[in-house]
Amino acid sequence: MGDSLERLVREHRPGFSLGQDFYRAAPVYQEELRRFLGRHWIAAGHASEIPERGDYLLFDGLDASVIVVRAADGAIHALHNVCRHRGARLCEEAQGRLSMITCRYHGWSYRLNGELAAWRHMPDGLDKGEHALRRCGVALFEGIIFISLEPEHAPDPAAMLRHAAPFWSRFDFARCKVATQRSWRLAANWKLAVENTLECYHCMSGHPEYTAANAFVKADELPASADAAKFAAYRATWEAGLEGRIPLGRSGIVETGGQPCRAGTFPLAPGQATGSQDGKPLAPLLGTVAAFDESVTTGCVGFLTYLAAMCDHALLVTYVPRSADETLVVMKWLVRGDAREGVDYDVDRLRWLWETTTEQDKRLVELNAAGVATRGYVPGPYSTLEAMTADFVERYLKLMAPSR
């Protein structure tokens, strides 16, 4: 879109939300895919979801459909879900098990590593090796499966995650399993969803349950209040008790190939063991966590993948852009791999806080999108409680600069 994109970037006012076309225009979305979304790593799932040979799950988004499958040797492959004959979709169910990947249109079949195994009535001289399924990049981090649609241009995943990895190691995600999951379709551009995620300016009014479990919300909103003073004293004592035992505070945001990554550990609310309705534990302790310490560790891998871990469970959240005005939010709750549903954890209790919060966020983000879509919208200024949102916008604009 050339000149119009250059104008949009040039006219952006620092500290303000983006211009309307950034949130609405299909050509902008296509430029995002071309410039960075296609190459950056995004979480497609967890290894526990495909434990056996032939187990697969689908990733549908970013104008792609990808089969994430475990082969006979245990390796995980990410393959475009498109037959190399005439482009028919191969796997139709969101998750399942196969022995071969077979196209039901004309019968071409592929091995689990994407190699073409069989075709019929094809002209002499064609090489099967040239018609394997197109591959995506795969990177495993603590059991989390990341894919890149353009692996030849993707950042080095090990380098990208290195500085944040110490914050996550104690939870041993690789030995976790997905206890439950849910998806929400947002009638909104993906950037509106991400902007909302990165700020808590809306939390006191929009998320009373989250606010009750996370004492920082009232402390940040009312810095001169008794609640803020009480939280400051609690936090000082909390940090003193954990200093040297686990990483505390923020890792800093480090970009690798234009993809930011961060992590940090902070206190919940006094007496709040985990993210539960009553503050009490929800599941067995994860990894090497020795006791409930009222902590939450959060972070991101790029703009679209977010992690939050408490002592007994974790959340893997992926924002999957589907078009300029539709985003799929995929949330997966992780518990220890040997935890038993109905004995060690209750799914409804486990889901309560973030299911409630995400339902609220869906309404708020769609409310935002409805206003942004009208002629009355002009970019507005971010508050001091929206610093991470403003930071996201500036990083996004760098990636969209016409010089790239």
Explain what the structure shows:
The chain is of the alpha+beta class. It contains twelve helices and 18 strands. The strands form three sheets. Strands 11, 12, 13, 14, 15, 16, 17 and 18 form an eight-stranded antiparallel beta sheet that branches. Strands 1-10-9-4-3-2-5 form a seven-stranded antiparallel beta sheet, with no helix packed on it. A three-stranded antiparallel beta sheet has the order 6-7-8, with no helix packed on it.
Summarize the model shown.
This protein is α+β, with helices and mostly antiparallel strands. It has 12 helices and 18 strands.
Task: Describe this protein with a few key phrases.
8-stranded antiparallel beta sheet, 7-stranded antiparallel beta sheet, 12 helices, alpha+beta, 404 residues
Helicity range: 25-40%
User: What is the gyration radius calculated from CA atoms?
Assistant: 22 Å
The helix/strand class is alpha+beta
Compute the number of helices. Answer: 12
Taking the alpha carbons of the first and last residues, their distance comes to 13 Å
> What are the secondary-structure elements, in order, as H or E?
HHHEEEEEEEEEEHHEHHHHHEEEEEEEHH
Topology:
Blueprint: H1 3-11, H2 20-24, H3 26-37, E1 42-46, E2 55-61, E3 64-70, E4 76-80, E5 95-97, E6 101-102, E7 109-110, E8 116-118, E9 135-141, E10 144-148, H4 157-161, H5 165-168, E11 176-186, H6 190-197, H7 203-206, H8 208-213, H9 216-221, H10 226-242, E12 249-250, E13 254-256, E14 259-267, E15 295-301, E16 305-309, E17 314-323, E18 326-336, H11 347-372, H12 387-400
Antiparallel strand pairs: 1-10, 2-3, 2-5, 3-4, 4-9, 6-7, 7-8, 9-10, 11-18, 12-14, 13-14, 14-15, 15-16, 16-17, 17-18
Helix pairs in contact: 6-12
